[in-house]
């Protein structure tokens, strides 16, 4: 039965602006149909109050009429107005019919949640103000009257309390899901803003921010970090000979190899074109040079996207004082420039004294320094 009821209501995707309004309308009409049916039976056979039974029967007929019209038309805006006016009118009509009994006023508190959610803040405020004005007038006319608390007052309190729990449970679900969707969307937007679309590595903006933060931390840390700047040799020839699609495939696969080789211990970004930058964390300049040479050797001895390529790399240490993003990048770029102009397929190192040497010479200098 429930499956039939919900299957006949208009269906919207969860990200549609009318999804939750349609859900609330469907929930309300199901609840009101069952509720008015039960109250009609109770007021006829148990309480023997035909006037109240007539109101409840009217609510039952209106609920079913709106439901079937909603099913055929799928018009959320008109149905939202119909449900709001129905809920408001029946609540006020019931309050008036029992002479404005103070406990019947509780039903008016259900009007704002429906009105604000279904027809908006401005119109909901008007409907709510009218309803509460009527309630205030009824209470005003009953000043200094003796209040008798009977079984009806108990039922009013219980029924309205249950209705409030159900309504706010529904609202909390919509709020939490909306917040989760917004959080997921923000995460996706952040990822897009930080990621290079082709290679799915970090982009230059994200890399600059991470490098700047790392330099700041390094001032108060004993850890050593290094920067590698990498360039695919003669990449323009690949684009000119085989086309940009092949060139893009080479870049994507090369980026994947970088992540496989050193991704767990490094921050990798596409710097632009065929250039990539890598931050090696907790790594000395000697170890960074060795890793760079291992990467160079791996690439030169294998194909990337079925293309034989080589790479040139510039390596420098991130200094602990008086350093900046620009200075670090300038040192690495100078080392890379040196490699590209001394035969390519090389690793060159720019040490902290601004001396640029190629890998083999650098190792010899390190050994000589150790043996002194």
Descriptive overview:
The protein is α+β, with helices and mostly antiparallel strands and 372 residues long. It contains 13 helices and 8 strands. The protein has helices at residues 2-7, 19-45, 50-73, 76-97, 111-119, 121-141, 151-194, 204-218, 235-242, 244-262, 285-300, 325-340, 359-371, and strands at 225-232, 266-272, 275-280, 303-304, 307-308, 311-318, 347-350, 356-358. The strands form 2 sheets. It has a 6-stranded mixed β-sheet with strand order 2-3-1-6-7-8, with helices on both faces. The chain has a two-stranded antiparallel ribbon with strand order 4-5. Helix 9 packs across helix 10 (244-262). The longest helix has 44 residues, at 151-194. It is elongated, with a radius of gyration of 36 Å. The termini are far apart. The model has no long low-confidence stretch (mean pLDDT 86).
Top keywords for this entry?
single chain; 372 residues; alpha+beta; 8 strands; 65% helix
Number of helices: 13
Percentage of residues in helical conformation: 55-70%
Shape: elongated
Decide which structural class fits the backbone.
alpha+beta
Beta-strand content: 5-15%
Q: Whole-Å distance between the termini?
A: 90 Å
Question: Over all CA atoms, what is the radius of gyration?
Answer: 36 Å
* Strand order in space, largest sheet: 2-3-1-6-7-8
Order of helices and strands: HHHHHHHHEHHEEHEEEHEEH
């Amino acid at each position: 039965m429930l499956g039939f009821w919900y299957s006949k209501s208009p269906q919207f995707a969860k990200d549609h602006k009318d999804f939750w309004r349609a859900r609330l309308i469907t929930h309300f009409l199901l609840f009101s149909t069952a509720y008015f049916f039960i109250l009609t039976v109770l007021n006829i056979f148990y309480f023997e109050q035909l006037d109240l039974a007539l109101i409840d029967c009217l609510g039952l007929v209106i609920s079913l009429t709106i439901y079937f019209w909603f099913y055929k038309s799928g018009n959320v805006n008109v149905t939202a107005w119909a449900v709001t006016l129905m809920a408001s009118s029946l609540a006020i009509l019931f309050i008036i019919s029992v002479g404005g009994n103070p406990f019947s006023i509780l039903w008016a508190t259900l009007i704002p949640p429906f009105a604000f959610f279904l027809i908006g803040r401005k119109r909901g405020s008007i409907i709510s103000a009218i309803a509460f004005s009527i309630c205030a007038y009824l209470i005003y006319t009953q000043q200094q009257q003796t209040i008798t608390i009977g079984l009806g007052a108990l039922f009013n309190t219980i029924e309205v309390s249950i209705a409030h729990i159900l309504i706010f449970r529904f609202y909390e679900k919509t709020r939490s899901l909306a917040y989760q969707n917004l959080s997921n969307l923000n995460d996706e937007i952040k990822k897009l803003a930080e990621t290079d679309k082709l290679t799915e590595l970090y982009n230059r903006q994200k890399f600059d921010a991470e490098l700047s933060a790392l330099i700041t931390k390094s001032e108060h840390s004993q850890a050593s970090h290094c920067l590698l700047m990498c360039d695919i040799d003669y990449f323009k020839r690949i684009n000119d000979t085989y086309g940009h699609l092949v060139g893009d495939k080479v870049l994507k696969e090369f980026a994947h190899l970088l992540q496989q080789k050193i991704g767990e211990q490094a921050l990798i970004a596409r710097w632009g074109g065929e250039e990539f930058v890598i931050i090696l964390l907790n790594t000395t300049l000697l170890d960074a040079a060795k890793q760079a040479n291992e990467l160079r050797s791996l690439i030169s001895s294998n194909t990337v996207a079925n293309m034989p390529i080589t790479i040139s790399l510039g390596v420098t240490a991130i200094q602990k004082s008086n350093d900046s993003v620009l200075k670090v990048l300038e040192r690495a770029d100078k080392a890379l420039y040196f490699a590209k102009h001394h035969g390519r397929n090389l690793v060159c190192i720019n040490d902290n004294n601004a001396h640029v040497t190629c890998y083999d010479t650098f190792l010899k200098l390190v050994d000589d320094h150790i043996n002194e």
